[in-house]
Design brief:
Elements lengths: L2 H8 L17 H39 L9 H13 L7 H18 L5 H27 L10 H18 L3 E8 L3 H7 L1 H18 L5 E6 L2 E7 L3 H17 L3 E3 L2 E3 L3 E7 L6 H17 L10
Antiparallel strand pairs: 1-3, 1-6, 2-3, 4-5
Helix pairs in contact: 1-10, 2-3, 2-5, 3-4, 4-5, 7-8
């Protein structure tokens, strides 16, 4: 991982994270794949935007038709778009309740628009739904900005925020919390032999496997490249090493994916360090980084915690 990683997060610069020194630019085909994944993540936001625009046009039509006393049905794409966004929202997303309520509101408005509801009532209800859609669209965009588009995991900014929150809690309550830095072993041969598209699938599959094996209050983050960070609250260094070791063993028993008829397994090295109220986050991550390299030198067989 190296000191450059910590300088980017904890140094004087608050701008975007740049590539590591010496890191090659992504090949064109990999860039296209990343762009596709990002577009898929942003699809629901686009659907919400289209629904909001359709609703706005419908409200204009209601006002125009009011003088002619003719009904104007709510466009079906408003309801369909909300249903699509609700289906696309990830499990556990904080947006799910709002999307579900907005869908029910749109369905009710659609029924009202085909009946004898006064235009004034339609406009009032329509404006309320319009404001809700605008809020959901904004919240969705903000949420996606924190996610790594390839793996779907939170990225560095979200990691920093979570660790700062855990450090504050530790200072107040004295609870344990550890971080585990994970670096995939033998990932470069996957890219070299099968290509970067398979490498990207491998990373995404590894991220999904990590998330599915963690406790409900743990969290996984993509730090960059083939590096990941786990936040493990309520765990001492020994317990955190146990969690990481179980992850390592579990991933070794089941292939992540198949490529060209071959089963690809995940192997990784890890370094574990505990948050400390007397140390900065940079110091704690630096300790975990040193222990990660110690694990690499030892063959990556076990996570390295307290020296």
């Amino acid at each position: 991982m190296g000191a450059w990683a910590f300088d980017e997060i904890y140094g004087s610069s608050a701008g975007e994270v740049s590539a590591a020194p010496g890191m090659a630019a992504a090949p064109t085909h990999r860039a296209r794949e990343l762009a596709l994944n990002e577009a898929q993540l942003q699809l629901p936001a686009g659907v919400l935007r289209q629904g909001r625009q359709s609703l706005s046009h419908w409200l204009d039509g209601v006002l125009e038709a009011n003088a002619q006393a003719r009904p104007v049905a709510l466009p079906a794409q408003v309801v369909q778009g909300l249903a699509q966004a609700l289906q696309a929202a990830s499990h556990g997303s904080s947006l799910l309740p709002g999307l579900a309520d907005a869908l029910q509101q749109a369905q009710a408005l659609q029924r009202m628009s085909t009946g004898a509801t006064p235009p004034r009532t339609l406009v009032r209800e329509g404006l309320g739904l319009l404001m809700r859609l605008a809020d959901l669209e904004s919240d969705w965009a903000a949420q996606q900005a924190w996610l790594d588009p390839l793996t779907g995991l939170p990225g560095r900014r979200a990691l920093l925020q979570r660790l700062q929150s855990e450090l504050s809690r530790l200072r107040r309550q004295g609870d344990d919390c550890c971080v585990a830095l994970i670096d995939l072993d033998r990932f470069k041969p996957v890219n070299d032999q099968f290509g970067h598209l398979v490498g990207d699938r491998y990373l995404a599959a590894f991220a999904g496997a990590l998330s599915s094996r963690l406790r409900s209050y743990d969290a996984a983050f993509r730090f960059g490249g083939d590096e990941f960070v786990l936040c493990l609250p309520q765990a001492s260094e020994r317990q955190a090493c146990g969690v990481v070791e179980r992850l390592r063993r579990g991933l070794a028993e089941q292939p992540l994916l198949k490529a060209e008829g071959r089963e690809l397994y995940a192997a990784f090295s890890a370094g574990v360090a505990a948050l400390d109220p007397h140390k900065s986050l940079g110091q704690v991550l630096g300790e975990a980084d040193s222990r990660l390299y110690a694990a690499k030198r030892a063959g990556g067989l076990h996570p390295v915690g307290v020296a």
